[in-house]
Design a protein that fits this description.
There is one protein chain. This protein is mainly alpha-helical. Helices cover 65% and strands 0% of the residues. It contains 17 helices and no strands. α4 packs parallel to α7. The longest helix has 28 residues. It starts with 30 loop residues before the first helix and ends in a 14-residue tail after the last helix.
């Protein structure tokens, strides 16, 4: 009897079976549902913050920490983006062509973002910043604002995570090449080399934070009761929040799932432990919920957007990553549609929200602000009625994201095969 853990059906996008997906991540149909959860968490977080409910409302802590959705997105990227590299490595096939990989990633990120950047500026206006100089255009259109101490949180401010994703896309093929080069000397120890590589990424992440915080513990300037500093943000604030090395631990957790998934597929049969993991999805989502509850209600993390101390940041990053890791497990291991959790992830309404989640992520914060101030008259900062805002702004955001997907993102992805996807020579 074949004891291999079966995966999902042939398409990754159950809400759009004809989507021109850049990678055709087959066998992981639950990931659109995960994107929906991540996007929903971020939308609730920003709505709760703008209306003040996340700061002062009962159980508002659960909204205040909805920025954990970004960690879910990072783990999803770590898994889906790295899996083709590690799968080809373990099976001895050539790696994906770097040029084609970067081309597809660029198509996925930039066109939709550019349209949102221009649209938000013209229709809603940026909360801060604008297109006043050539530097503004180059910074915002190039998604390099996280490296600029005067523009880092301006424009589409939640787009900082896209800038981090772009740096991950640039880094990943180089990392995969180094791992393959090292493993070539010990071809029977590919898994061990891959595991050591992920440990090294986490070590770099930890060392990066500690080094920057030792150099400039910037949070002491932003403490409660202190006047807010004026002028540019310190580089230590950017490096320890937005830059790739600070988030390598989150990407590495997704990459670990990719490594184990590819190893199981290459092995041809499922180890007993992985088989057990696939059989208890309820356990992993229960642990995800418990971890999120603890991080929101019991970990002593602030509800408002104040700089965290070093220990608080380490704790939050660990808890957010652990929650996202548990959340991904049922979508990575197990048969799609088996059990209520996996059925929920591929349920068409949820899968559809995940399908258009990129547009939701890009547009939601500007829409929330506009609806709150101009339609509902909630002009006092951090005060307002949460539920009318989330219903109206959420519905409008889904409509805009639908247009973004069908008029911009989906047509652009048809150009994904401009470059060949594999190299002609092995590595």
């Amino acid at each position: 009897m074949d004891d291999t853990v079966r995966s999902a059906p042939a398409r990754d996008h159950p809400a759009d079976l004809n989507q021109p997906d850049p990678e055709h991540h087959r066998h992981f149909s639950g990931f659109d549902g995960l994107r929906a959860l991540a996007a929903g968490a971020v939308v609730l977080h920003h709505a709760g913050f703008q209306t003040g409910y996340g700061i002062n409302g009962r159980f508002g802590e659960l909204l205040a920490h909805g920025d954990a959705g970004v960690s879910i997105f990072f783990l999803i990227s770590g898994f889906l983006i790295y899996r083709p590299f590690v799968e080809r490595h373990l099976s001895g096939r050539v790696s994906p062509a770097v040029g084609a990989f970067w081309w597809r990633r660029g198509l996925r990120i930039f066109p939709g973002y550019w349209v949102a950047l221009i649209g938000i500026y013209l229709v809603f206006g940026f909360g801060r910043g604008g297109f006043n100089t050539a530097g503004d255009f180059l910074t915002y259109f190039g998604l390099t604002q996280i490296y600029d101490t005067t523009r880092y949180f301006y424009g589409v401010n939640q787009a900082w995570s896209l800038a981090t994703e772009i740096s991950f896309y640039l880094f990943l093929p180089l990392y995969a090449f180094v791992i393959r080069t090292i493993a070539r000397r010990q071809p029977k120890r590919k898994m061990r080399v891959e595991a050591y590589g992920l440990m090294a990424l986490v070590a770099v992440c930890v060392g990066w934070r500690l080094a920057w915080w030792a150099y400039d513990p910037f949070w002491v300037r932003y403490g409660a009761g202190l006047p807010r500093p004026q002028g540019p943000a310190p580089f230590s604030a950017l490096a320890t929040q937005y830059w790739l090395p600070n988030n390598l631990d989150l990407f590495a957790m997704g990459m670990l799932l990719a490594l184990v998934s590819a190893w199981v597929a290459h092995r041809g049969s499922t180890p007993r432990f992985i088989h057990w993991v696939a059989q208890v999805p309820w356990l992993w989502w229960s642990l995800a919920a418990a971890t999120y509850w603890f991080s929101s209600m019991n970990a002593g993390l602030p509800r408002n957007l104040v700089p965290l101390t070093g220990s608080q940041y380490f704790l939050r990053q660990f808890l957010y990553g652990l929650m996202a890791f548990f959340l991904l497990l049922p979508a990575v291991f197990g048969e799609s549609g088996r059990g209520w959790i996996r059925r929920f992830l591929v349920w068409t309404p949820i899968a559809y929200v995940g399908l258009i989640s990129y547009g939701i992520y890009l547009w939601h914060q500007a829409v929330i602000g506009y609806v709150r101030e101009n339609w509902l008259g909630q002009t006092v900062e951090f005060q307002g009625s949460f539920f009318p805002v989330i219903v109206i702004a959420g519905s409008l955001t889904i409509g805009i994201a639908t247009l973004s997907y069908y008029l911009v993102e989906r047509p652009v992805l048809r150009g994904k095969n401009f470059f060949p996807t594999t190299r002609s020579n092995s590595s």
